[in-house]
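Data availability excerpt. The first of two example chains:
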Amino acid sequence: MTNASIPRQDAELDAEALSRRLGEACLAQDIRLTTAESCTGGGVASAITAIAGSSAYFETGYVTYANAAKRRLLGVSQATLETHGAVSEQTVREMVIGACRDSGADLGVSVSGVAGPAGGSPDKPVGTVWFAWGNQHHQRVERHHLPGDRRQVREAAVAVALSGLVESVTEGRPGGPRR
């Protein structure tokens, strides 16, 4: 797990450019994707599917904003939510596992965080976002503290999620597909 204080700040974080790069890599390696999103509200899936031809590699997306949806659609355990909360390493790990299991995708990303302006706590201030990349067998989890207002946090979270997917596919990062 990485505890990053700010997202990667280079031009590569442009969602469209990242989505194009991701699509090319998925097509080259015959990888199918899924997303499990909370605070981004479908922004990652939207960025991926904004690219023409994405149906060749994008399987499905889950927007599980409420804890009940995380449990029902992705199989996140009630015990995990009660013990660790929705914004936690354990929850995003279970989210990506459930999304890949349900969709049959090779690789997924999950995102859960506090976008603000309210909802933060001393342990999880506004801008705290957890990510997991992987599948049912392997996951890589990171926590980021993203600066800015609600829109900026959400946009940065989409970029971090896409960047991690690109790394998982192109660089064989932990949490990448294992067939």
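And the second chain:
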Amino acid sequence: MKFLKKLLKWVAILFGLLIITLYVTDTDYLLKAVRTIYMKGHTTAYLEDYKHFDNKPLDTGTPQPWPNHKDYNSVKETETLKNVNAQNGTIAYVIIKNDSIWFENYYDGFDEDSKSNSFSMAKSYVSALLGKAIMDGYIKNLDQPVCDFIPEFCEGEAAKMTVGDLSSMASGTNWDERYYSPFSITTRAYFDDDLTKVMTGLKVVREPGTSYKYASGDTQMLAIAIERASGKKLYDYLTESFWEPLGSENQALWQVDSEDHDLVKAYCCIASNAKDFARMGKLYKDHGKWNGKQLLDSAFIAKSITPRFAESPEYGYGWWLKTVGDKHFFMMRGHLGQYVIVEPNDNVIIVRLGHSKGPGDAIASFTPDISAYIDEAYKMLEQ
């Protein structure tokens, strides 16, 4: 018994020293990571982790339900699609044709109203808010310096960085996009309670605006710039600019770093559902017009879904771009395979949400699952 008491005492001392060390070394965010992710049996962020973070609501206005297509759910999933959905843990698969729900199915206990984490699909919303801020006169244009809003980036090469560079992933900072390392800045940003401090600690290591490098930190800095330019919290600005006007049917949630600092995790973390996520795809497909009203400048949208850099044809301004044969898709993409995929010429939107991308779970590259979701949707549409 004495030995056990002594052992427990030393365990408590070591645990206490560990916690003190984490705070002294400014890595105490790891405590939240362990509590919210690793102790829940996960090795990375997951679809329903929003329940363990602070969130702010994106409220609805007058809901505008999607109409059902005349051929609604008349075709079943292909065998290939069934297998891919099962293997990758799909929770929602929706095909929208001519602005009507042509096919929808939900899995693993989720339904059409279930919330799940958007992950990096949120980047497309933030880029849209940049366009809106330019329309509203809060920001001059894509070439306005970030320095005008974040003074920590006014020296040397950093002074060349523009808001357009942030939207197109061309900031030139030393952001390190690693999701599975507990010590990467990506992990820190996900769990730290002061994102502004994290972002302003970045360094510019190459000339901004010269090349593409996927970096979630770029979108986070863009959010700070938009908030400071507009004087509005980003969750409020998204609500009034798009969530309500687009007729979203369900209140969504956007994670913030903490109640004290109240800054959205702009590079990720809008909790919503497939059919409400699809609305932003429709807005871009329709050149920024919704029910006859121009919510977003069509020229900004055209630029957003065009590659900025010839050597990086897969990315525009906040949107991913993919050509398959004679079809040109633009898409919102998120960690673990969250997708809103749009082919404007065919008037088709494909939404897939789920637990995994499957094999080839790479960052900033097109994994094989994307082709499967596109190919099988078109096979179904052709039946």
